[in-house]
Amino acid sequence: MKIAVPKEIKNHEYRVALTPTGARELTGRGHTVSVQTGAGEGAGFQDGDYQLAGATIEPNVDALWQNAELILKVKEPQPEEVARLTPEHTLFTYLHLAAEKSLTQGLMESGATCIAYETITDAKGGLPLLAPMSTVAGRMAVQAGAHSLEKAQGGSGVLLPGVPGVAPGSVTVIGGGVVGENAARMALGLGADVTILDKSIARLEVLDDRYQGRIKTVYSTADALDHAVRTADMIVGAVLIPGAATPKLITRAMLADMKQGSVLVDVAIDQGGCFETSKPTTHAEPTYIVDGIVHYCVANMPGAVARTSTLGLTNATLPFVLALADKGWQKALADDAHFLPGLNVHSGKVTYRAVAEAFGLESVDPASIVK
Ligand SMILES: NC(=O)c1ccc[n+]([C@@H]2O[C@H](COP(=O)([O-])OP(=O)(O)OC[C@H]3O[C@@H](n4cnc5c(N)ncnc54)[C@H](O)[C@@H]3O)[C@@H](O)[C@H]2O)c1
After folding, report:
1. Where does the record place the Alanine dehydrogenase/pyridine nucleotide transhydrogenase NAD(H)-binding domain (predicted)?
2. How far apart are alpha carbons 328 and 340 in whole angstroms?
3. CA 206 to centroid of chain Cα atoms
4. How do residues 248-293 score in pLDDT, each as one tens digit?
5. Is the CB of 232 under 6 A from ligand 1?
6. Ligand 1 within 6 A of 182 CB?
7. What's the 238 CA to ligand 1 centre distance in angstroms?
8. Rounded to an integer, what distance in angstroms lies between the CA atom of residue 342 and that of residue 340?
9. Residues with active-site annotation
10. Rounded to whole angstroms, how far apart are CA atoms 26 and 21?
């Protein structure tokens, strides 16, 4: 199969959809891999690394797209990329269509087959191609929050591990899913006093068992949130309610109960955020202060650590890329009930129900297309 890897063009996107390691796997199976000049640079991969893996480097972006059957990307296609798509293309990337009406329409009009990373499932009920980026964001949350606690950043001047004779700082994580657990692990590793709040008893049981009391678990209630704002030096927002807007769990009025210079890290900002005073920020200016509380609300946290993020993401995508290349999209999806929900748009039709419902469109069952 002819596979193309364009350079990402979304602002501040440094990741790449295929590493030289992945290119070697594909070329070793007889596939043709064409990588746009400089596509891997932001993640630390040079054109020569891809050439050593058997790929060709294509400086001409028109030729890259025109000659491809399978296109591998990271971010949703930008308007100039949508314009390049044809019915002959299979696109495999993050799409997040339910929030993007014009992108959905553009992909339908292109006639292409569009498979989204984020709607692929696994046997444990998880989202295996979202999890690596949640892991990155969770781990980064505490790193960013610890930096924000420094005086020069407007923080309270607390060092999370404390020092001998001085108690450690206190970190509360709201939402103990993939992001929350990874944030808590990092905070624990730094020596902070760590508490996780969650609404799911089953999840709290898993965390309690895994960390044997080293991370405190608390059922998430209004009382628990009141206690958290009064005591925590850092609160990480990591709540997700699938298919619903994130609830505003900490209101502006509650900030008055927090210690001045405490830090709110709202990782859930990409879904609207779980603090009333959160608004999306960028890596160029990641924090702002409201009522003396430092807010860190970067919507694409993994972008700052593009090398690790690329490696984590491509480890997770590679088995699916190999299946697409070896079998073609129809058989690859038909053979794998967890891969099948990845199909979002095919030949002008929406094939993922939640996306169709979001825009009042007809939805076609993907199983009826691949059989
Ligand atoms: N900013 C970024 O760069 C970035 C990167 C990755 C993920 N995220 C976001 O982080 C958020 C969390 O993602 P995840 O992968 O950890 O999700 P997840 O589904 O693994 O975990 C969410 C957890 O929130 C819990 N929860 C729901 N309502 C709650 C409440 N009222 N109080 C406490 N806990 C509650 C759930 O029980 C679940 O355990 C999502 O909004 C995701 O989009 C952001």
Report:
1. 149-297
2. 13
3. 23
4. 999 999 999 999 999 999 999 988 899 999 999 999 999 999 999 9
5. no
6. no
7. 4
8. 5
9. 96, 270
10. 9
Question: At residue 155, does pLDDT exceed 70?
Answer: yes
Distance CA(85)–CA(284), nearest Å, equals 32
Instruction: Please give the distance, rounded to the nearest whole angstrom, from the Cα atom of residue 232 to the centre of ligand 1.
Output: 19
CATH number of 2-120+306-370: 3.40.50.720
Counting ligand 1 atoms within 8 A of each CB, the residue from 199, 239, 250, 297 with the most, and so the one to mutate, is 239
> Quick one: angle between helices 306-327 and 20-28, nearest 10?
10
| CA dist list (Å): 283 to 75, 299, 303, 304, 313 | 17, 9, 8, 7, 20
Give residue limits of the domains in the chain. Answer: 2-120+306-370, 131-299
pLDDT in tens, 327-352: 999 999 999 999 999 999 999 999 99
pLDDT at position 241 is: 84
Question: Does the CB atom of residue 262 touch ligand 1 within 6 A?
Answer: no
Ligand 1 atom nearest to CA at 303? 3
Which residue's alpha carbon is at the smallest distance from atom 21 of ligand 1?
A: 177
Question: Is the distance from CB of 195 to CB of 219 less than 8 angstroms?
Answer: no
- Probe residue for ligand 1, chosen from 135, 142, 179 as the CB with the greatest number of ligand atoms within 8 Å: 179
Q: State both tokens at 32.
A: 């043709």
Query: Does 2-120+306-370 match 131-299 in CATH topology?
Result: yes
Q: What is the CATH number of domain 131-299?
A: 3.40.50.720
Indicate which atom in ligand 1 lies nearest the CA of residue 176. Answer: 39
